Amino acid sequence: MQIIEWALIMLKIKILPGCISCGTCEVVCPEVFKVSDVSHLKKDADLEQNKEKIKEAAQMCPVGVIEVEE
């Protein structure tokens, strides 16, 4: 008997108040982030496919307003 396990990993991203619109997140991960007056997530962005770039963008944010949770 074979046991198959499925796991759905959800990625939760928060952009906290304090974004200075520097554009770093958009440069690192343009597939997910868009900066206008402040950073926003693109509506149909594939978060799971871009998970590593999202984490990198959060780490590089100079004011630390991007939080990533799995």
Helix and strand sequence: EHEEHE
The fraction of residues in strands falls at: 15-25%
Q: Tell me the total number of β-strands.
A: 4
Query: What composes the largest sheet?
Result: 2 strands, antiparallel
CATH class: Alpha Beta
What's the domain count?
1
Number of helices: 2
- Rg: 14 Å
The proportion of residues forming helix, as a percent range, comes to 10-25%
Q: What is the spatial order of strands in the main beta sheet?
A: 1-4
Write the layout of secondary structure elements.
Blueprint: E1 12-15, H1 24-28, E2 33-35, E3 39-41, H2 51-60, E4 66-69
Antiparallel strand pairs: 1-4, 2-3
Describe the 3D structure.
There is one protein chain. The chain is α+β, with helices and mostly antiparallel strands and 70 residues long. The protein has one domain: Alpha-Beta Plaits (2-Layer Sandwich), CATH 3.30.70.20. Helix content is 21%, strand content 20%. The chain has helices at residues 24-28, 51-60; strands at residues 12-15, 33-35, 39-41, 66-69. Strand 2 and strand 3 form a beta hairpin.
